């Protein structure tokens, strides 16, 4: 059969396992990742700065066959992220709201030491990454940790950053930790048109980057401001204030409305900020306000 650009990587490899080797030659080293293999050939080409037609021709020209042992060894282990050396992997256990216990810290340290990790890195997404693991050790590390992977890649809700809020911080105007945990449980890993980041800040200092992520909350003396459409990257974008002074029981309905609108109107790989730039914010604002009543 002839493959097309709208076919998922996992389906292409299922039809002809040997296509994995061809894709690896072009730089696609994430073929063992549960998130990446659900992308289409077109998405994979875009993510790796490849000409989609070159990728398509490559997989269609491969003879039918099984995956070689060498190629299988290079395939990214589930829950692992290939590092710069193209030989080792990092993992990022999911740590909701960035809150850990001494027991979790001890476990991460013990497992890292057991498998000779090159480094332990606190990430900007409030996770603790274990860096420099051998591919054959990655499944063992996950088993020993007994923790879920954080969604660090893929077209889904990635990190939910949460500041200490008025539980601990002297500047906090609103509660953030319990709310952030609820938000994380509800949305983390949810499939969306593009990657999606969230931040929950308890005051206008916005320590959780609420105005520069796709969907953010900022505590005020009267409630929470809801920001939408921020992002970093090559073309950074400041988020727009969508709703002001929401009460705590209004936050989740408002966020649900934003997510639903984005699912209905976002194009593949289009961040919500670019959606707003394309069609305006008025429709989203009206949709969210209706959800509040």
From TrEMBL:
PROSITE patterns: NIR_SIR (PS00365)
Domain Nitrite/sulphite reductase 4Fe-4S: 156-291
Domain Nitrite/Sulfite reductase ferredoxin-like: 83-145
Keywords, ordered alphabetically: 4Fe-4S, Heme, Iron, Iron-sulfur, Metal-binding, Oxidoreductase
Residue stretches making up the DUF1858 domain: 4-55
GO molecular function: 4 iron, 4 sulfur cluster binding; heme binding; metal ion binding; oxidoreductase activity
SUPFAM superfamilies membership: Nitrite and sulphite reductase 4Fe-4S domain-like, Nitrite/Sulfite reductase N-terminal domain-like, SP0561-like
NCBIfam families from the UniProt entry: prismane_assoc
Protein name according to UniProt: DUF1858 domain-containing protein
Annotated source species: Desulfosporosinus fructosivorans
Lineage: Bacteria, Bacillati, Bacillota, Clostridia, Eubacteriales
